[in-house]
């Protein structure tokens, strides 16, 4: 059987969600094919959680010392949302030591994690994106730049990050400064983006046996002002309709765009693309190259609607990343 390191945690505001995703993968992994080890990664250290104990990970070769013997891993299942698992840092580390990983590679991860850069690349592929301005911490009077380029209402969010951590919807100029402070607390770069009125749709995509597969399109209906962190993870604050109640041709268009972006961005593993559907057009929001896999997350619901079990999806992800 293959030894699988399920890495979770990370150094961002998404570490709690990541730990839930890691626990979900650990619970559902096929024990007839894999021996799973849950590993928490953070600035404080890298530890394997087993038997109620924390065993430190040897970072020089990503091994464990158990009862005097060295345990090597055959594959890494990446369940870290945010840094360092979604921005390419861990992928580069695993590349250097020669351990295959279930998520996208260094270049794809770094590009897609930077929302501003990713939007420009996606727009070059003919997919619409909302107008936006990128601000850097320490720039002179960033609020002025917003008034010049962006209309209200707008969204202010960390340029590198996910789960809507540090994100605000801003309705007027008086709210800008507080929103900027909140976003800059999470990141040195902040993206200010036009609000696009429409339906929020999302589509998960995976490659298995060499074939790119799109899961059923899902509509997110938030009961809060927008789909923020609380709405994503607090029960009852959002409804996720799987499959979305949309026309077949709209669903097909969303799935085709998502599969095209998956291929063109050179994604690996399971990925989720988010859009606003407005005036018969899809406006790309972002791509999640390590989407949530907890009980509350969207991708597991898509997978079940597609007719797969989570165990089957995790197996497919591991088998695909082992293909040379």
Spans of 5+ residues with little confidence (pLDDT < 50)? 226-233
Tally of separate domains: 3
What integer is the average pLDDT?
90
User: What is the strand tally?
Assistant: 18
Q: Helix- and strand-based class?
A: alpha+beta
Helical amount: 25-40%
Cα-atom radius of gyration: 20 Å
Known CATH architecture of the largest domain: 2-Layer Sandwich
Return the CATH topology of the largest domain. Answer: D-amino Acid Aminotransferase, Chain A, domain 1
- Report strand %: 25-35%
CATH superfamily of the largest domain: ATP-grasp fold, B domain
- The ordered string of helix (H) and strand (E) elements is EHEEEEEEHHHEEHEEHEEEEHEHEEHH
Q: Which term fits the overall shape?
A: globular
First-last Cα distance:
19 Å
- Determine and state the CATH class of the largest domain: Alpha Beta
Number of helices: 10
Q: How is the biggest beta sheet arranged?
A: 7 strands, mixed
Please summarize what this structure is.
This protein is of the alpha+beta class. It has 10 helices and 18 strands. Helices cover 31% and strands 30% of the residues.
